[in-house]
Write a structure and sequence with these properties.
The protein has two helices and no strands. It is rod-shaped. The N and C termini lie far apart (85 Å).
Amino acid sequence: MKKLVQSARALRKRDDGASAVEYGLLVAVIAVILVVGGLALGNALNTRFNDTKDCVANPTAANCP
């Protein structure tokens, strides 16, 4: 009977829920993914705008449609 009571107390003390630290780590990983994606998208957009600027300045260039 004593072991049963000890087992019940151990189950009651066990913490299976996510803590603030785990949520903080999750937010940090998501933030890193967003920053990396934003940098990649920013570089692609910068290249596209520079190509458009060059075509407006010189419409007879080889890479202009």
